[in-house]
Amino acid sequence: MTSFDSYFLMNPDDVKMYVREKIAGFENTGKLSCKEIGDGNLNYVFRVVDEETGSSIIVKQAGETARISDDFKLSTNRIRIESNILKLQGELARGLVPKVSLYDERMNCCVMEDLSDHTILRTALLEQRVFPNLAEDLSTFMVNTLLLTTDVVLEHKKKKELVKDYINPELCEISEDLVYTEPFNNCNNRNELFPANKEWIEKTIYGDDRLRLEAAKLKFAFITNAQALVHGDLHTGSIFVKEDSTKVIDPEFAFYGPIGYDVGNVVANLIFAWANFTFTGGSNLDYRNWLESTIAKTVDLFTEKFLASWQENVTDIMAKEKGFAQWYLDGVLADTAGIAGLELTRRIVGLAKVKDITSISDEKSRVQAERVCLETAKAFILERKSYKNGQDFLDTLKKVYNR
Ligand code: SR1
Ligand code: MG
């Protein structure tokens, strides 16, 4: 009989036993099936189905290294962070994250709602599917989980407690390396440049002193600006969608960091979907129009809801000074632009790629897609203080594309 009293990495048979032992409703069932379905870079995700009733559940377990590479030795504590923050985000942004039913600190796993009736947003966008509520849902998720965890809203000692609870040094180090460092100098030899773009990237990215200086400034803001409890990895692979529902998953990179880290990741990854559409000869104009308006609307609705929530929820007396909300928001939008630029850069230059770009099979088209994303990224990083609304982001993208 397997004991779940001390940690080991489970296989699907272990997970079936685990679920029978731990989860009410699954104890006496005659037939369970279990499959590892994870496609993320870090953890193992098992889907367990009761074949008699059709009920299903997800078990997510952390290994001591990253799933994609044993190079990354990681604390299994990330599952505690993920379980806790999903509960908190579930309170702040109702209906927009999966429900967690169990966190097991010995087995370093958690059990949560199965969202198999949803699709990963990145996959759905590559299929050119439209989700009318996406900008509404993502902007609500970001405003509620971000502004409401800042110290302009929370009592300051409570906020500092949260900063302590969500210290996440190893996963932050991954972002410090993969997002803020390696794409600008290949210092750890982990970058992978598309061969036909190698020389161009070496000159345009590694060879640009001004760009590297701005990336350095953004890096130390990421490390020191404990502004809000950010998701920390809010790309389109961390979002599940179906027609009338959006669920944000995988917050294991959560920590107290800049609000723009989440907003910038969303913007950049929607731009990757745009690049895929544009450079694979996409002709569905309804989809393109929806995608472009979603990029702009996500920023604009974020801004609108942020200012409305500010009026309603801010408690700090100095934060209520006239002009302070707009000054704070301008900083968030500048970070959003800078971080969107960093994300666009690192997913093309660095280790962790995105399918939107790697699946472009025609060499010339992929070269062009990468160059448009990287030139857009540079403008976002270098001119970040000039981005004030969603159209500003689209204008840069279109200007670069039409050059
Ligand atoms: C070693 S982890 C590589 C990337 O996958 C995660 O989803 C994060 O984006 C991280 O940077
Ligand atoms: Mg993930």
Automatic annotation (TrEMBL):
One of the protein's GO biological processes: methionine biosynthetic process
UniProt KW Transferase keyword: yes
SUPFAM superfamilies (alphabetical): Protein kinase-like (PK-like)
Presence of keyword Transcription: no
Top-rank lineage group of the source organism: Bacteria
Keywords, sorted A to Z: ATP-binding, Kinase, Nucleotide-binding, Transferase
EC number assigned by the record: 2.7.1.100
MF (Gene Ontology): ATP binding; S-methyl-5-thioribose kinase activity
Boundaries of every Aminoglycoside phosphotransferase domain copy: 34-274
Enzyme class: transferase
Stated family: Belongs to the methylthioribose kinase family.
Assembly: Homodimer.
Protein name per its UniProtKB record: S-methyl-5-thioribose kinase
Native source species: Neobacillus notoginsengisoli
Taxonomic classification: Bacteria, Bacillati, Bacillota, Bacilli, Bacillales
